[in-house]
Amino acid sequence: MLINCVAYEHGSRLRDLAVEEISDFLQRPDTFVWVALRDASPEEMAQMQIEFGLHDLAVEDARNGNQRPKLEEYDDALFAVLHLIEPDGEGFSVGDLNVFVGSNYILSVRNRSQQGFLGVRARCEREPHLLRQGAGFVLYALMDAVVDRYFPIVDRLESELEGIEANIFTEGAARSNIERLYDLKYKVMCVRHAVVPLLEVAAKLSSGRGPACCAASREYFRDVYDHLLRINASIDSIRETIGTAIQVNLSMVAIGDSEVSKRLAAWAGIFAVATAFAGVWGMNFEVMPELHWKYGYPVALGAIGLTCFVLYRRFRRAGWL
């Protein structure tokens, strides 16, 4: 679906265009065209390919989706893929933004995402002296908006991790904590898969070996790279903390199992002594010292009870019971 199709000249907005007019305005000097699509149909992509002369492989990647973040160069044109991460209930949904950049055009195709970029267009139009840099500055503005949306996601992950950490030493919560930690680990990996490849993209665009269409905005891409470094550092910290928390929970489970084993062993020892006494006095022999003594039975029970009581006290003092 077409969202916007606008022509700009010397950093100022000329007017909205019909798709059929794009190729005409691409011939004008100091002019570039900015087109935004959402969930584009194959017919729309085919039409855009004709108007902008897009490379077949780039168009194929945009149609198929599910690409890792990347930057590819086709002669004097660029094709960039960025991941769009949005909260979806308890989890995240991952969409993508495919951006085609040339010297006099930029085409963005947003898929599987509800968050638009109208604010980016408004921001660029408020800064015509920067928009004069052309399509390269628009690519920066789109990347900057995508990266800025990662910060609330990382904050949410950190808050969720803090909530789990607060319950680590809660009795009986080890299993649920481990399940929550592995679910959080999956979310962190989703963000990491979006951020780490994008670091390489931003590094290339901010370096001297970047494409010519983005050379005027090199310093701005360096700012995006710095933001990505901060996010990546936070993600690494969260991953390390999750690993530590999982180990602590497993240790708590092992300690709990050890406590149960000690209790069972203590009670088994107590009953083993009682069983041994009962086994000796329960043997069917005709001649036994206490067999014809009228106090033999109470003394036997008393000896069993006293021995069990002594063992119970010792086990309790040792912390086994």
Number of strands: 7
- Low-pLDDT parts are none
Q: So how many helices?
A: 10
Helical percent range? 55-70%
Instruction: Work out the strand percent.
Output: 15-25%
Summed over residues and divided by their number, the pLDDT gives a mean of 86
Largest sheet: 7 strands, mixed
Please state how the strands of the largest beta sheet are arranged side by side.
Answer: 2-1-3-7-6-5-4
User: What's the end-to-end separation, in Å?
Assistant: 70 Å
Word description of this protein:
With 321 residues, the chain is an alpha+beta fold. 58% of the residues lie in helices and 18% in strands. It has helices spanning 22-25, 42-52, 56-64, 118-125, 128-131, 135-148, 150-166, 174-206, 218-281, 296-317; strands at residues 2-9, 12-16, 31-38, 70-74, 77-88, 91-102, 105-111. A hairpin with a 2-residue loop joins strand 5 (77-88) and strand 6.
